[in-house]
């Protein structure tokens, strides 16, 4: 039990909620933690709720009843995310990022914790209304994005491997056709990594035609799991048809020319609709 002044209690309660997103916390938890009446705790939570929503930190949901409490849902306004993504687009258009074969170097961007944090928060905002059990990605570049997203959704991360590892025990492996080069490739997922009939959010760093994501979808069928959402950091706009229909992209690579080392990157389809639509 902690005896704190109200100002200090508000600060610590806010930190407590921020570190436990999408977690139902009974009012008795705070009442016992600070040795305060539930009425006082309710007043404090009302203040936190107002400030969080006004400052674009997220929503504080209240659930009534004996099993009720409060749940903090991180959510960043679309307008704020758009400003961030426009900055990322400018970084991606730098000529030195263009690689032979019209590929793009992004590893340095995905290695910056501050940027990953914002990407994760944006994906969490895009999917906060949906119900998931896990966040899934395929090694290797998608891993930091998946963990950043999962931290704001309070979900575990499942990693699909390019090949089976002895340390992961029995696994399910499938062959799939890469959408970019039409090559037959293999992906594998340990049987212990995912419960059957799980609801999955797939996160990937880059999607050209969508062959890798389609492969993950096919792999999930072996676990009788449901793909409840797909998030892509950057999608290519230079393909005739994607193998994935329903997805959220944060940025779109419209044009890339390795000869002139020029690229045009614009905000993705997440910004095609307004908040609440």
TrEMBL record:
<feature type="domain" description="Bacterial purine repressor N-terminal">
    <location>
        <begin position="5"/>
        <end position="74"/>
    </location>
</feature>
<keyword id="KW-0805">Transcription regulation</keyword>
<dbReference type="Pfam" id="PF00156">
    <property type="entry name" value="Pribosyltran"/>
</dbReference>
<keyword id="KW-0238">DNA-binding</keyword>
<dbReference type="InterPro" id="IPR000836">
    <property type="entry name" value="PRTase_dom"/>
</dbReference>
<dbReference type="InterPro" id="IPR036388">
    <property type="entry name" value="WH-like_DNA-bd_sf"/>
</dbReference>
<dbReference type="InterPro" id="IPR010078">
    <property type="entry name" value="PurR_Bsub"/>
</dbReference>
<comment type="subunit">
    <text>Homodimer.</text>
</comment>
<protein>
    <submittedName>
        <fullName>Pur operon repressor</fullName>
    </submittedName>
</protein>
<dbReference type="Pfam" id="PF09182">
    <property type="entry name" value="PuR_N"/>
</dbReference>
<keyword id="KW-0804">Transcription</keyword>
<dbReference type="InterPro" id="IPR050118">
    <property type="entry name" value="Pur/Pyrimidine_PRTase"/>
</dbReference>
<dbReference type="GO" id="GO:0045892">
    <property type="term" value="P:negative regulation of DNA-templated transcription"/>
</dbReference>
<feature type="domain" description="Phosphoribosyltransferase">
    <location>
        <begin position="113"/>
        <end position="243"/>
    </location>
</feature>
<dbReference type="InterPro" id="IPR036390">
    <property type="entry name" value="WH_DNA-bd_sf"/>
</dbReference>
<dbReference type="GO" id="GO:0045982">
    <property type="term" value="P:negative regulation of purine nucleobase metabolic process"/>
</dbReference>
<dbReference type="InterPro" id="IPR015265">
    <property type="entry name" value="PuR_N"/>
</dbReference>
<comment type="similarity">
    <text>Belongs to the purine/pyrimidine phosphoribosyltransferase family. PurR subfamily.</text>
</comment>
<dbReference type="GO" id="GO:0003677">
    <property type="term" value="F:DNA binding"/>
</dbReference>
<dbReference type="InterPro" id="IPR029057">
    <property type="entry name" value="PRTase-like"/>
</dbReference>
């Amino acid at each position: 039990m902690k005896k704190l002044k109200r100002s200090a209690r508000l600060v610590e309660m806010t930190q407590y909620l921020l570190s436990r997103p999408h977690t139902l916390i009974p009012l008795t938890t705070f009442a016992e933690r600070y040795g305060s009446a539930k009425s006082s705790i309710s007043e404090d939570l009302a203040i936190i709720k107002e400030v969080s929503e006004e400052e674009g930190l997220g929503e504080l949901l209240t659930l009534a009843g004996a099993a009720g409490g409060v749940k903090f849902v991180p959510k960043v306004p679309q307008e704020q995310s758009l400003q961030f993504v426009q900055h990322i687009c400018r970084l991606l258009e730098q000529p030195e990022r263009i690689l032979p074969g019209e590929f793009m170097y992004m590893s340095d961007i995905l290695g910056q914790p501050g940027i990953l944090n914002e990407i994760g928060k944006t994906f969490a905002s895009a999917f906060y209304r949906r119900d998931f059990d896990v966040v899934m990605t395929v090694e290797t570049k998608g891993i930091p994005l998946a963990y950043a997203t999962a931290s704001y959704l309070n979900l575990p991360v499942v990693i699909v491997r390019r090949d089976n590892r002895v340390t992961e025990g029995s696994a399910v492996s499938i062959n799939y056709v890469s959408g970019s080069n039409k090559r037959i490739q293999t992906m594998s997922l340990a049987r212990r990594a995912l419960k059957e009939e799980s609801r999955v959010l797939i996160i990937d760093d880059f999607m050209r035609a969508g062959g890798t994501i389609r492969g993950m979808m096919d792999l999930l069928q072996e676990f009788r799991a449901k793909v409840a959402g797909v998030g892509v950091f950057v999608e290519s706009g230079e393909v005739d048809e994607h193998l994935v229909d329903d997805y959220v992209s944060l940025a779109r690579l419209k044009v890339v020319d390795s000869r002139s080392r020029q690229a045009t990157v614009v905000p993705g389809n997440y910004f095609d609709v307004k908040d609440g639509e």
